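Exercise 3.2. Students should predict the tertiary structure of the chain below and write it as structure tokens, then compare their answer with the key that follows.

Predict this chain's 3D structure.
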Amino acid sequence: MTELFNDIKQKKEYLANQSHFYFQLAISNSHRVTTGYIIFLISILMYYMLSMPIQMGDTDMWYHLNGGRYFLETGNIPNIPFFSFIAEGREWTNYFWGFQTLIYSIYSVGGYPALIVFKALLVLISVIFVTRIITNTVNNKEISSAQLVMLALVVFVLVTRATQVRPHLISYTMIPAFIYILYYRPKYIPVLPFLTIIWVNLHGVEWPVGAVIAGGFIIERLYDYSKHNDKRALTQIAWVSLCLPAMLINPNGMDIFFVPFKIPDDINLFIIELRDVSIYTTNLISNRGALLLLFIFSFISIFILGFKHTLKLGQLIMALSGMALLLKGQRFVWEWLLLSLPLFSAASQQIFTQPVFKNKRLIASISIIFILLIPAIGWLSLIQNFKQYPYNTTQLPTATTDFIKFSGIKGSYVAPSNYGGYVQWELYPDILIHSDMEFPPFDAMSYYELTNTYKSKEGLEYILTKYNPDFISVERNNAFFQGLAKNSEILTPISFDERLALYINNKKHPGLADKFRLTAINPFKLHGSDKNLKEEINELNKLLIISPNNLTLLVTVSIKLILAKEYKQALTHAEKLLNLYPRKKHSHFLAAIIHKNLNNYKQAIKYFEKSLNYSNKKGVELIYRHLAESYFQIDEYRKSYNYYKKGFNPYTRIELPIHYFKYAYSAMVVGDIKLAKRLFNMFILYKRDVDEALIKKSRELLSKIERGKISGTWLF
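Answer key:
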């Protein structure tokens, strides 16, 4: 027995060694592997960035577009909230006026596709500089496995901030560019004052980060000069010092220096980006999992490099400054990340010196490959969730905005501030809004005044009395506001969409209020008793005339028509949904339900199967039951049985009685007699809203099973 055991052990060791040998042989050329991986990483990243439509994460991009349009049309820097009816006396330092002008110019030429390309280009430039910093080596050493791991994790976290076209993308390009030039290509330092002029006009609030980079470099070079009397250090310091006067070449002059410190009180209580940082997670395939690893590594790096006496002043100053920013809030995670790049590069070379994949064990190489693939796995998994391209409107308040345009009213509109960017872009100059998410020019009291409108009787009365707005909208998940509006006797519900319910001031606009008043349909609860289906459908059709392509309106009217058994009319809307929103679960599912009710079971099956690709777990189980029933209707009992097996569970939920019979019958046909017997008994036991003929049929089949007349596969 001992000899047998030793023989097996030796064979296992031999196979492991052979596997490791061939694996190492396949990747023995580290330079090619490294270059190939970097090309692969950037290629997948660009595919991801160019596949991502313009969509709502927040609506800040649209207020930047509106600011750029205002500047090019008026010639005035948008340093007042020109789009707001509470703008009087408010003036602020617009530190991203250049970015606003730039993206509006790009949009004017190429629309949303051009903005997608612009965003992807900024990310590409940023990642190229990040790559050059992290993979930089000294004395022509090979790039270590740790450097590639650092690169994968840093890029993965960095790109999570690249979903919106906003001015921070400029800073995320400039920060690594400045670091790379100063610390790795000092011969290009004379370019930095010119880059400073661009940076300060596109995103001037970030100048303290630039000051940290430049300041750390100057301190390090002064130290080098004192030690080695290096005359080049003084020349470099002189060029870097020119960045300071270069900052003054902006329309705001000296005011730009004070911008980062003019922070409204309590802003961290209502701006998510400025809340405390939370980086802990057990899930590595997430930006926070990668962030946690990098955060831990940054502390380890400082201590180990310090112990080895290889920690440079510039690295230390940038890393500590980044950590100080990180403590200020979530908004500064990416500044910390970029400021830590030289530290990551140096530490990954000195702590882990092994060249790419040249580890002693196969499992170590496999682990490295897994980490290197994390960004690609994350990005590719997100791509399948992208909807309309190049412009995804499904989370934006399009129908309510369309209604205001349709009304022809020129006046004022109170909308939740997190939608303020979009609605001002669409409605200015005819409609002014209360405020958006710019702080300044708005402050905590502006935000409180607006949010209090939606949560208290006094808040609503205050805003109606003070401003007498033409329209008010509220998020549809705030059903409490429905009672407030009803008690006000001034507001009439007239429209809704994915996000908002819209009210009109019926004292100012009685005609529109009477014509479009929603009495049957409830925007806060679209699907309930459905007692007035005809009236609901009529109200929805009025809104569809104004917004014929709105997702929520099309889905809602399709459901109402299905409930009213107007299947042919419902199919018209469902086909439109399929054309406009082919990647939305409702589109295929509603088409399937309609075809099922029209007894077009093969068509229903086709759409049910497509809808599986866009549904969550709960939705998938419902679709399985519909598929099972549809296959049953065309006598394909094996497929019916298989789908019922996936989606039918009488022990965890109440199933429809007819499903018991059809599942039992399918099980009987395919030969699962025990299950068929159990389900027939359950069906007979149910006795609620059940066809007596089916009960009788079930008893007959059970009797045959008991007598052994049905066993094994039973084909009819």
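Discussion points: Residues 631 and 684 are 23 Å apart (CA to CA). Residues 398-542 form one domain.
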